[in-house]
Amino acid sequence: MAHISFDSSNLSTFIQPNELGEMQAMVNAADDQLRNGTGAGAEYTDWLHLPTDYDKDEFARIKKAAQKIQSDSKVLVVIGIGGSYLGARAAIDFLNNAFFQAQTDEDRKAPQILFAGNSISSSYVHDLVQLIGDRDFSVNVISKSGTTTEPSIAFRIFKEMLVKKYGADGAKSRIYATTDKERGALKTEANSEGYESFVIPDGVGGRFSVLTAVGLLPIAAAGADIDKLMEGARAAENEYVDTDLSKNEAYQYAAYRNILYRKGYETELLENYEPTMTMFAEWWKQLAGESEGKDQKGIYPSSANFSTDLHSLGQYIQEGRRTLMETVVKVQEPKHDVVIPSEDSNLDGLEYLQGKTMDYVNDKAYQAVVLAHVDGGVPVMTVNIPKQDEFSLGYLMYFFEVAIGVSGYLNGINPFNQPGVEAYKTNMFGLLGKPGFEEIGKELKSRQK
Ligand SMILES: O=P(O)(O)OC[C@H]1O[C@](O)(CO)[C@@H](O)[C@@H]1O
């Protein structure tokens, strides 16, 4: 039995009973493209078997490195952007205390995990340096290419800080490089400087890399059980193999979102009712957006955090343009529950809820929102997960990865490339005067007012 469940029961006013079955032939073809390597981008599908087929020696090394970081550092600075950071960030938030990063070093029982190199904000880096202060720290620099501008700038800054604090040799023993197995600038530097290094496998694109060292080292350093994370993903790998739409809920999700997309529901909101899942949605947004948004088509992935955003975006979702569909990731059992206290004055009118738990109210909010949004013309799908633990997270991430792979093929694109990301980089290099980009720089500058 599947560990998580996909609930499509609220789609009945938007999709007729015959429509899912009519997608079966297309799903069969998409499954063939994905699993038999007949589709575009087949060289980037090794993530499909990562939960079973991974480097066990490296996995043990990751756990050892995490222990070393825990023993000699109060802070781990994780440098990376896009798929080289979002999975770790999402997992660490999802699995830990809501105030993990704000806890004292003693309470946290693991290093504070701070992220850099995911923007070019100087103010952010300045403040991060201040926050580290004189505490012991290590750096995990994550980049397949080793030349991505944002993480490369951050790496220079934190490497210099390490050298000043620990000397050249001390710094080397505190830098962990996660990169290509043999090529690229970071691999070359790791080899020559002797940094401990971990591999981003060739057949795994950044947005599908959370279950490699890219995600696993920071997640383990934060104190999570990465064996359980892999176990959950492995269970999902075994679960979502049947091509039959009536049996494979990840494929069902892929098919339904494509049916809806073709009816004009062009934006999908990934929603949660737990603030610790905000970054999970950010991970999902790259997974879906970078995979599917190409050739001038694709579902636009967005997100909303409830009930917070019901008081900001709620109006639009209820009554704005009818192009939205929603996918809720609903946690069945909270990490902790809290009873609502009684108050004699009852000025807030809440006495009818005294003695009930907050999670009871949160669940009723979810039920109420589904009813209201469906009535308002917004199709709602729900992915139910039992709780926020490592096993469930590994399972859930695999669910979305396999669903997005199939979904991309259903829409006739290559889900595993990202040619569009280069356009801004080329322009930026031109404007910055990077050697080799002089011509484009001249042309761009002539167009600027
Ligand atoms: O690991 P790298 O090479 O620094 O790239 C980081 C990110 O940049 C992209 O290549 C493009 O945004 C992503 O796919 C990737 O996750």
From TrEMBL:
Single biological process term from Gene Ontology: glucose 6-phosphate metabolic process
InterPro entries: G6P_Isomerase, Phosphoglucose_isomerase_CS, SIS_dom_sf, SIS_PGI_1, SIS_PGI_2
Compartments, record wording: Cytoplasm
Coiled coil segments of this chain: none
Classification via CDD domains: SIS_PGI_1 (cd05015), SIS_PGI_2 (cd05016)
Pfam family for this entry, one: PGI
Name of protein: Glucose-6-phosphate isomerase
Organism: Paucilactobacillus oligofermentans DSM 15707 = LMG 22743
Gene this protein is translated from: pgi
